[in-house]
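Please predict the structure of the following assembly.
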Amino acid sequence: MRKTWGLTFAALGILAAAFLPRLLRACVGPSVELIFINTIHPDLPVGPYTQGNLGVIQPTYASIYLYVAYRNLAGPPVSPSEGEALWGGDERLLTGHGSRTGEALQQQQALETEMHPDWQQAWLSAIGGSKPFVVRFFDISSIPPWAGVYREIALHEGNNELYSQYLNCPQDAFREADKTLKLRTQQFGEMSSVVQNWKEAQKMVFGNCNEVGEVPDDLPPSAPAIARADRAYQQAAAYFYAGEYDEAVSAFRAIAEDQASPWSTIAPYLVARALVRKATVIDKWEPDFATLGQAETQIDSVLANPRLTQYHHAAEQLRGLIEFRLHPDKRLAELANNLMRGSQDANLAQDLIDFKRLFNLDTGSQYFGRPPLIGSELYTKLASARAKSDLVDWLLTLRLDDPEAYSHSLEKWQTTHSSAWLIAALTKAEPSSRHVSELLAAARRVPTSSPAYCSVTFHSLRLLLLQRKDAEVRERLAHLQIRRLGPFPPDFATPPSTANLFLALRFALARNLDELVENALRVPATVTDDLSSQQLPETDWGVGPASFDPVLPRFDDDSLVVLNRLLPVAMLAEAARSPKLTAKLRREVALAAWTRAALLGNTSVARSLAPEVEAIDPELGRALRLMILRRRPRTSGLPPCSPCSDFPA
Amino acid sequence: MFSAMRVVPVAMLLAGLLFALACGSTRIVDGSQQAQSSSSGARVLAGWPRVIVWAWQRPEDLSFINPRRVGVSYLVKTIQLNGDAVFVQPNLNGLKVPAGTWVMACARIEIAAGSIPDLSPQQAREAASKLASLADFPDAKAVQIDFDATASQRDFYRNLLIELRQRLPRSFPLSITALGSWCMGDDWISHLPIVEAVPMLFRMGPDRVSILLRLEAGDDFEEPLCRQSAGMSTDELVPQLPPGRRLYIFNPEVWTKATFDKVVIIKE
């Protein structure tokens, strides 16, 4: 019986003492993840960050957050209207309250829902139909922000089947058709043969959206000229949606040359669109770069033609798409420079989408949930884009996992003295890096009001700590202009992740148990059971243990390692009584301390903790008291335990 | 589904056992416990390939696979929940497979980055209506939904699957991917209208240690829906699986014949 108790205690002691981190962290409930420092995005809500409360910037933030940081550091700061474009009008993302702004939501829904009355109902009522005019509506994508009809491709190619999908008929096609129908109805009357013929032909045109349909026949020469011009345009459009791009290009070119046609000014632009389609859809794993080159030439001619000014905006956007595929590095830099114009960028929302996609494609981020660090090979490959845009250069340098990241950051800072590059250099610096002292001196001059303050201060202290300048670090931490280090209310001034980073520094410098315990406690920045990569907060803890409170302070990994592996058991017992710990943590520490003491045969500590243990588990506590009262010799009842030698007695 | 891989030191494997003991959160199932199973579901699954590869958000040329032995679950679209809205992103990356390949039309559900979704019954209905067209995907033999639903999202997901099931043709099987924890010590999926739940044994996060330990010890998933198949990644080994499972395999890189031959050996 005594041996059984001894073995039981030994087993509990081994497991608890060895794996206390998992015990203390994991017992909050199934699949709960405590994140003390957010690494993918800044602390949510993102409003304060957008306005310049950047905290300590992490190189692993998704590109959109690094862009916002750069804007706040290098200017111009992000305006409220730009915030709409950045965060889609979602007040909850910005402030943690409210909902998507009504206007932003309506606009997006207007673009993206297939049931919106602006175009579909108008179209249906115009042609007198009550059901969709295509065989089957497919799906509507939010990116790009066009509602439309997608086409599935299933091709038989040799012994293989090929499947793909693409946006075939975007919403602007239906809008334009609706406008034309209204115009012709005004000109000729709803029941006129012109309008009726037009409607029948247009049904055929859009019948190609889902699958290959028909192309309308020519009108007889006796038909009005404008009707014949409309028919030529509808034929070209039908070829386009049917995927017969060579025929579409020829047809649109012919229309472009017909100066009498009302479609002659849009036709050159549509030639380019047909060429882009030919280059990128159907059975292409990679774009047909030769055809894309033809599209580029065509779209440049549109942009150079003053007669076609009304289509220059659309042509610019199409050119962006072409450049995205044809010259991605150049396009990345162009987009970055557009984004730095802020609200003066008329295409801010689309440019941001394209920039994120291109940046993620370039850095391989699109296949993983978390933005990966990049190597020197990719960094060199993107040298051209970096040379054209300081934003791209900064983003890629932050992500670079190579000594060149420091040398390049240092060089850029020495040239520009910008706070963005000071942050990059300090982030990448090691304590013995050359010119570190200059960087540290520059960091001291950054005012507390600067968006760069937290980042430069944290990394300065990190480097000083590694240089073993403990006294200086301690002194500066004591006077840090960062409010509320420690448990804080939801309405925080310092982002929780940032506060936790500084607490970790203070923890590393603790001179006594009191300081250790005080700085061991951190409030998680995010508490989630989201096992995706987004580190999004879980808000409903109804299914977890009743005692689980997501805003209570807890131990992060650095604290647990010290408590578990480095702190002598007597001190751990003392920590269990610290008023700086929450009641829950005191109980957990007491149990762990007792278990270790029992295992090590340290009966005085075990005895001293008996009241705490009994409060946690009365039955165990009573058994302990019995064991202690029998005053068993230390050498009996407890088996040898080799792992115990790893732990301080 | 595709969160970052974690390195699992040996100590953590043991810590998982401690977690299970200390928190008392799971029931250990021994081999003799007979779980409920749907006989009709078993019949449906009987004709499915034993190996199915996921084709995800990149162009995939799988012309090298043996269509008699290997199937493909192709990500057709991603549904994004954003506030009270439901947005659809079709997968614009192509897929090439040998003629006659068994294809499953798959969709992933995500929360738009930084968004807090409504998760209302109406949103579930809307999402289901946008997913129902998966059954129309050319040559599709089944539909699969991939959603890492958190605790607070379960009601929504349940509603969505019920709505989707009603919209799919009756004979069209519905499969889902499942977090490992759903299959062990949690019965929330047991009454969902699905024929299988594929336990995803990669990128498992905090549950990884405990689940792998139990599988290593010879335990099986408690939830019968999870006992037909298992999902794994080419870059994350699973030490042991109960025999006879259908394998779904994910590759974080583009599939090549070399990668496939390295990870999949099919005995004829």
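The domain at 37-262 of chain B is CATH 3.20.20 (TIM Barrel). Residues 183 and 221 of chain B are 5 Å apart (CA to CA).
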